[in-house]
Specification:
- By secondary structure, the protein is α/β, with parallel strands linked by helices.
- It folds into three domains: 139 residues, 3-Layer(aba) Sandwich (Cobalt-precorrin-4 Transmethylase, domain 1); 91 residues, Rossmann fold (3-Layer(aba) Sandwich), CATH 3.40.50; 129 residues, 3-Layer(aba) Sandwich (Cobalt-precorrin-4 Transmethylase, domain 1).
- 42% of the residues lie in helices and 18% in strands.
- Strands 1-9-8-4-5 form a five-stranded parallel sheet, with helices on both faces. Strands 2-3-19-14-15 form a five-stranded mixed sheet, sandwiched between helices.
- Strand 6 and strand 7 form a beta hairpin.
- Helix 9 runs parallel beside helix 11 and helix 13 packs parallel to helix 14.
- The chain binds iron/sulfur cluster.
Length: 399
């Protein structure tokens, strides 16, 4: 399928909008009330520090809502204003943040139901308005909505669209896209829908398996079993790992994407030699600045003497989980929570999600005596949520 041509025709449709409705001023107050925080502004001005009795808070110097998310949320609010009566849907959580999604529900934005992992579009009819979230939608979903005569409001972050353009270029040049991402993440699903031949690798370890196979060190059956759900239909590792390009889910750790890129460059260099490298390897760094900034700020923060770290963001938010990983790697007692409600001030307990585990409740959350707490939040967490978490920490410190 010519996804590029489809996108071009969709962009020219009168039922498609990706620039908003010029109603920014009308929604500014609601957005400010729902998401912004005076306290966070003050902490920012105070060099990202706050002292409250025995409690010392250190905020990461970059955290929370990124440009792409702010844009997507504002567009969703504008859409409601622009279509006050129409049925309004969103194909997925607009971003991975429970409070933002709750606000949308209050505005009568309906989420497409999901049955056993499959979205059910049967309730959508001609004339309905459908918002595509910040991390995009698959080309098949766009086609379906277009054919059904819906108005599409596309809030896909331009950084994500840039990755789609990259895999489309790979497709045109008959290059296999190696996508660094999580197979089931909506952004990776969307990106792979625009790709031709592709293989998704989760991390450096999986990339190494692919590199070894290229150099003749793998077993075909094992390879196919491992990547069965992570590749394009008909993928053949003996034919499709000859010309490679790298792309990523924009919220993966940049350092890891870069390492994966270097690994494949070295691998193709070994296999084909320097004269032919350009025919076999196409590098492209598609990671967004926001993710990088949050990661860099986190690396600086964990150099501080911290007693504990609180990482705030949706549990299915990839970039938040990666921030948590950085704290864990440094051996810092770190808690990933999605809402302030996870902290119980009465019992000094916290319900949190340890890396790759189920929700767990820990006691003695805030230790006794002077305590240094580091705080950061993922790109989809509003300042207002961070403020509420700090408020709870303050209350605990007063006990
Ligand atoms: S994290 Fe990056 S890619 Fe994702 S919405 Fe924000 S700016 Fe866009």
């Amino acid at each position: 399928m010519d996804t590029h041509a489809f996108k071009r025709s969709l962009h020219n449709s009168e039922r498609y909008n990706r620039r908003g409705f010029g109603r920014a001023e009308e929604v500014a107050e609601s957005l400010e009330q729902a998401y912004q925080s005076g306290l966070i502004g003050t902490i920012r001005e105070n060099n990202y520090k706050l002292s409250h009795g025995r409690l010392n808070i250190r905020l990461a110097e970059a955290f929370g809502f990124c440009w792409g998310v702010e844009r997507a949320v504002a567009m969703a609010y504008e859409t409601r204003k622009h279509y006050p009566e129409e049925r309004l849907w969103i194909t997925n959580e607009i971003i991975h943040n429970p409070s933002v999604n709750d606000h949308l529900r209050e505005m009568d934005v309906q989420f497409i139901p999901v049955e056993q992992g499959v979205k059910d579009f049967s309730g959508i009819s001609n004339g309905d308005v459908v918002i595509l979230p910040a991390f995009g939608a698959t080309v098949q979903e766009m086609q379906l909505l277009n054919e059904r005569g819906c108005h599409i409001v596309d809030t896909t972050c331009p950084w994500v669209s840039k990755v789609w353009n990259t895999v489309e270029k790979h497709k045109k040049q008959i290059v296999t896209s190696i996508i660094h991402g999580k197979v089931k993440h909506e952004e990776t699903l969307a990106t792979s829908s625009f790709a031709g031949t592709y293989l998704v690798v989760l991390d450096l370890e999986e990339a190494q398996i692919v590199a070894d196979y290229i150099l003749g060190k793998g077993d075909r059956a094992d390879f196919m079993q491992r990547f069965a759900k992570a590749c394009s239909v008909g993928f053949d590792p003996d034919k499709d790992l000859v010309r490679l390009g790298v792309a990523n889910q924009t919220t993966m750790l940049k350092s890891e994407t870069e390492e994966i890129g270097r690994l494949f460059e070295r691998t193709m260099l070994r296999k084909y030699g320097p004269m032919e490298l350009n025919d076999h390897f196409l590098a492209f760094n598609t990671i967004c600045d926001a993710t990088q900034e949050r990661q860099d700020a986190m690396f600086s923060l964990v150099d501080e003497p911290l007693d504990l770290m609180v990482v705030i963001g949706g549990f299915n938010s990839s970039n938040t989980t990666h921030l948590q990983e950085i704290a864990i790697t440094r051996g810092i007692r770190s808690f990933h929570i999605d809402t302030p409600d996870r902290i119980d001030v009465n019992t000094n307990t916290v319900e949190h999600m340890p890396l790759s585990e189920a929700l767990r409740t820990d006691e003695k959350f805030l230790p006794l005596g002077p305590v240094n707490v580091g705080i950061t939040s993922g790109a989809s967490t509003p300042d207002r949520v961070v403020e509420e978490v700090i408020g709870k920490l303050m209350q605990l410190s007063e006990k």
